[in-house]
Amino acid sequence: MKSLLVKINNKLNAQGGFLKAVSVLVGGTAFAQFIGFLCLPILTRLYTPEDYSVLGIYIAIVSILAVISCLRFDIAIPIPENENDGKALLLLSFFSNTIFSIILYVLLFISYPYIQHYKIIDQLSYWIWLIPLGVFVSGFYSALQYWATRHKRFKEIAKTRMTQAISGNAASMIGGMFSVGFGGLIIGQLLNFSGGLFKLAISANRDLAVVRSSPLKATFARYRNFPKYSTFEALANTSALQLPLIIIASFFFGPDIGYLMLAMKVLGIPMGLIGGAMSQAYLAHAPEFYKSGQLYGYTVSILKKIFKLVVIPFSLLALISPYIFTFLFGQNWSGLGDYILIMIPWYFMQILSSPISMALHIIGEQKTALILQFFGFFLRVIVLLVVLFVDSKFTIIYYIFSGFIFYVIYMIFILILVKCKGT
């Protein structure tokens, strides 16, 4: 028995402790996803597909803005060896996020009288004022999460995900029970963005108290490629995913956006469970393999692990999706299973490629990453607009298909570049 435990421990600590890190993150995320999935049958009976459509618009806008609020200094936090540089990057993330959020409120205050009658703004109603707040807490959490990743505090990250799941779903259910409409979903999502902030902040504050200051100006100059290239890369990437939802909602507001939103939420369970954990663990360990010239082999081994983890769950989901979701979520959601079935290839490729995408930043290929994301934006947004005006009935199908095509091309380019520079 003892030898078996030793073997398990050795396996978990192999490759710099990657599997151990993943197991901790997956455990916390699994709990969060399990809570979310248990609550869905209740939430889909408290809220309509149209309510989820408005939630989808809110999430799309916040996600597009939040990904650039720290000027991408947040994703650089785990990379430097010097702790002072890591601290400076964390502070730069905080400053950027705070200033950006204030600017959003000022712009919204100035522009609101002129935009309030637009269809999407009208649908959001006064909940639009929670968009800058959502951006602020998302950016703050992201910076603190990457600081925890730098110190390999995966248990803390896992606990915050549990907090997010419990607080977010509880708020949404309470809002639904008191018939506050889609506002309950938005409050729940806001808590889902920010859950666990204080726990991560306390840990970070203890760290910063014993770390000497690092010149912010010098660190900004040293990592200038992150705001210079990665900001636009992230904006293009997130916009390619979220902007079509806003565009489609502008033309087809109704249950279809709700179906898309909930299908993305269901398929996001394995993405959040495995992809998110793999991304954090990969970023924590990949710089070490890059320095030793073994990044390509490490990256391929991670891809194989992800494939083995997801191929069976996705195959089972494809088999049951046309039959099970109406029973689980109620008659209002009878079309959901068909959406999930045709979206599976897209999410399968996304879950494979997303964790290793950080390799482009580790090998200094921010410019290439930017070009790839601009290509994705063109494929998924610009061409979508063409499809919308040529024959609008194919708009949603094209949106789903373009996601699959992009992630196939994206993963191929990542592997080619890592093989050239990471070996």
Short description:
Pfam families: Polysacc_synt_3. This protein is mostly helical. 84% of the residues lie in helices and 0% in strands.
Task: Describe the overall structure.
- It is a single chain.
- The chain is mainly α and 423 residues long.
- The chain has one domain.
- 84% of the residues lie in helices and 0% in strands.
- The protein is built from 18 helices and no strands.
- The two termini are 39 Å apart.
Relevant terms:
single chain, cell membrane, Polysaccharide biosynthesis protein, disordered N terminus, mainly alpha, globular, 18 helices, membrane, transmembrane, transmembrane helix, 423 residues
Q: What is the secondary structure topology, with strand pairs?
A:
Layout: H1 2-12, H2 14-46, H3 49-66, H4 73-76, H5 83-115, H6 119-124, H7 131-150, H8 154-177, H9 183-194, H10 197-209, H11 216-222, H12 225-252, H13 255-291, H14 295-329, H15 336-353, H16 359-362, H17 366-390, H18 395-421
Percentage of residues in strands: under 5%
- Quote the distance from N terminus to C terminus: 39 Å
Q: Summarize the main sheet.
A: none
Helical content, roughly? over 70%
Tally of helical segments: 18
| Whole-number total of structural domains | 1
> Which regions are unreliable across 5 or more consecutive residues at pLDDT < 50?
1-17
Q: What Rg is obtained from the alpha carbons, in whole angstroms?
A: 21 Å
Series of secondary-structure elements, N-terminal to C-terminal:
HHHHHHHHHHHHHHHHHH
Average the pLDDT over all residues and give the rounded result: 83
Q: What structural class is derived from the secondary structure elements? A: mainly alpha
* Form type: globular
Count of extended strands? 0
Membrane topology: Multi-pass membrane protein
Transmembrane segments: 21-43, 55-77, 89-114, 126-144, 165-187, 232-253, 306-328, 340-363, 370-390, 396-418
Protein name: Polysaccharide biosynthesis protein
Keywords: Cell membrane, Membrane, Transmembrane, Transmembrane helix
